[in-house]
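worker-03 picked up job from queue 'complexes'. Input manifest follows; two sequence lines, order preserved.
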Amino acid sequence: MSDSDRSDPQPVSTPEVGGTRRDLLKGIGAAVTVAALGPPRVAPAAQSTATQAAAGKKIHKYEQVRQWTIVDIKGTREFPGWIPGAPEIWCYTNSMSYTEGDDVDLRVRTTERRFSVRIERDGYDPELVFERQDVRGIPQRTPDDAAIKGCGWKPALSVSTAKWKPGFYIVYLSARSAAGREARGEHFFVIHGRDPGQFSSTCVVLSTCTYTAYNDWGGANTYRSIREGISTDVMEPVLSLQRPWARGFVTVPTEAPDVVVPETPGPFWKPDYPQVMWALANNYSRHYPDAGYAIYDGRFIKWAESNGYAVEVATQHDLHLKPEMFGKYKCLVIVGHDEYYSWEMRDTLDAFVDRGGRIARFGGNFATQIRLEDGGRTQVCYKNAERDPVKGRRTTLRWDSPAVNRPQAQTLGLKAVGYSRYGNSIPRASGGFTVYRPWHWVFEKTDLYYGDVFGAAPVNVFGFEPDGLDFTVEQGLPHPTPKDSPPPGLQILAMAPAMRGEPDRWNGEVLLNSRMEPPGASRPPVEPGADLAAGTLGAGMIVYFERGQGSVFNAGTCSWVRGLEADDHYTVQITKNVLNRFNN
Amino acid sequence: MSEAHEKYPRLFQWSLADTRGIREFPGWIADAPEIWGYTGMMSYTEGEQVDLRVHTTGRTFSVRVERDGHKPQVVFQRGDAPGTRQPTPDNAAIKGCGWKPSLSIETKGWHPGVYVVYLSTRDEGGREATGEHFFLVRSRQPGSVSNLCLVLCTSTYTAYNDWGGANHYRSIRDGISTDVMEPILSLQRPWARGFVKLPREAPDVVIPDTPAPFWKPDYPQVGRALANAYSRHYPDAGWATYEQRFVKWAEKSGYMLEFATQHDLQQHPETFANYRCLIVVGHDEYWSWEMRDTVDTFVDAGGHIGRFGGNFLWQVRLEDDGRRQVCYKTAKHPDGRDPLLGTAQQSRATTKWNLAPVNRPGAQTMGLTAMGYSRYGGANPRSSGGFTVYRPWHWAFDKTDLYYGDVFGAAPTNVFGFEVDGIPYLIKDGLPSPTGEDGAPANLQLLALAPSSGGEPDRWNGEVPLNAPLKVPPENPIEPGADMGDGDLKCGAIAWFERGKGSVFNAGSCSWVRGLDSEDFFTMQITRNVLNRFGQRTS
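worker-03 finished. Artifact:
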């Protein structure tokens, strides 16, 4: 989410919501209670209760249309004791990535005496590498502010990774209560080879800063937090990585809805959010479709492996903490939602490209600077210049804010520009990209023509939070303007409209979940009579540029993986063209 | 058609599939019964006599005349008119058939409308031949029934009408149908089969389903026409493919219309003063100078144009009181060039409106001009099929619920397709605006856009008909490495502008009617918004 650094988030004031809130709490509480932890399933009754509750609410102030926490209650704060009487198990590791041979310390907390652990190298053909039953649970104490300070759990088990292949490893945890009820949990870590680049010259860089920013385990993330025991839309500027991933970030059932508006809406449709309702009804994090391995990188890796592309895996944190390990890769791949980077992460990417590396990005929403602290165990992002104690270029604001002044586009060619097929932002977008330079090599063997659309609904390769540039179209071809500081020679290959800032059409009665920026004092109408503000209209893009000795391909959309999974010929062929060329 | 035609002849040899056998002409299908008819004029004032000229192989024939529309109404019927084989000159397409009147029909008390004449005869073996023709009845007091007047694109009908073997695209040379266009066409002949009436299953010209990868252009409409003895040009122009579908929708939706032809714009300009809104639908590629004068004057005086059509491109001249249409297009025609070229009257030379001798940009009248193709041949076959909305706050989108960036009318509806009209445009701050280089009014607003293509490279070494102009390789690539030429990358648009005391709404796509007859909510609401606003009487 391209959240605001222009205005401070306003806490919800409970009285303004009035009695309706209590009714709503009741409805959601019921939903949460009936949907037990366990094998994920959709609970139709619970879901409809939640839907009705959401539909029945009334918010009186226009500004509160974005107050998503209206349907978010204490019961959905994933935290020990969140579901009374239910068995629990969670875990995290001290680090996100390890070198082959390292010991991985699993810090497990469970309500039960015994638990079992299974570790698989994830991918197209998951590979079991470790299994142990009857591990003794140890008592753990969890501070109330664990999301900020970390859980501080003790290691329950140490696992040796000797001879493990480079890749992405999922820890599956299970515990049973005396009554036989099962609790499950998942965690992940990454294994690097001792000689990075030896297993594969392609490395997928997981968007772990964005995972962290959306991870609401413990009740807080960069979008909301617990205030006086209630989940609010006040963002939390300091987040610990010493905690589990919220449910849905590591694995998610295939029926879990994506975030893009899936079907093209009929006239007079009202925005709805099946993914949020699904999450609430099934005790998943409402943020599961926003970020995480399950929804983005994992789908890409499975597709890549099934198509014969072996990949190594690293984290954005590795870009920051171990820049030297990237020297031997030919191609870095970024997938999904990489809204947040640190200064140092960008330095590593820039140096990689300058030295001849290639970056293939199939993702969206390059927006905001974060800082890592405490050896990468803490992520800081204030989105507010006054509150951030660090002043200057490392202030955690949007990259193009005057204080930071390191335009997004300089690294990957694009910047976050808004939404498409999300909330009421362009709900009837084609869902695909329109091709403008079919003669470019990325379109080889696609058979695409000028003006063709690929990946349209119901595939929807274009959606959620796309990236673009200020641009003009002249003689039928788009060109970047200098405004967003694009790299020299950047070519726009395909586009689709994107925007941020639709006016509310329902007097505050419908959740919008995208930035509302109708014309007002700060931004005038884009033209006289328009109900949209200047600076909110644009396009998401596919671009290519060369820089130093390297080059960057950037398909600026979060939902590119949908085209791969749907086996859309065009999305698949473009992805192959890029991967093949970048590994030559 | 372009000069590449000469360079890459095989790509254009549409006539290869066109044999002598499909020249619609007496005797074209050996031993089959025949019946055709035409009238001395295209439009009549209520009360006038319509002279019906019929050629048939039958001894007698029957005639039925219906007012066409949502609920067709039979107004005349006769079962046993004596039939005649009329002598027909070989060059009837150029000189006219010269048939004698067979029947006179009285139109007294007839409602304004488009009237279809259904002809039928049987041979001794009981085989039936049928034929159709149309004429208009106009009120003695234009505007008294409706202030909305649909202007039929009769110049474009004529340009594509290949009855007798010739139209502005091909002709009979040495007895063989060729792609050499015929610059002079008579209106004294029947309409080719499919121009007046079509079975519902006849394919439209737009590529209906989004093609799979490595598709080759194909033309189901042409194949079907050839297989069923219809004119291959039926989906290009004509009442049946375009205006009739609009009228059926309009009448069903409660809009009463009056009717005129483009020829009436030239020949009876005074009859338009009492309308509030002229409607143009479908394919209006050809206009005369005088027709445009009438439209311009109408708008300046406070009238409104609701255009739901595409391909505003060529100037024609009418001669012989409108019974003959002239259009040379280029100076390189084998029969010679337009005799007005190089004379004091060369502004009336029959070529594109924006070319130097004429220099009356099409955009001055309609705001948009013919630009390119979409979902046709090799031209963006996988376009969305719809328009992308850029100014959802415009009144044309009232009650549609459309948002910035929304696409409406996408495949399989395909409201955007075949030949589309656009404008040189810039996009800045997410909004398109005209550059003005084509003479478009400075106050024109672009409401919606979609890409179109003016020329595609051949991907099949000349083995697949493309049916859109080609430049292979491009004479001036649009940028280094491009396989498309400078000027090949186009758009189609929905535009609105005010002019004088009036205004023009222009949805520049031939296939807008597809959105109406598939009852696409957005297409219908926009059409209603335009008709409601423009049809209002303002005192």
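worker-03 released lock.
The mean pLDDT of chain B is 92.
The longest strand of chain B covers residues 128-138.
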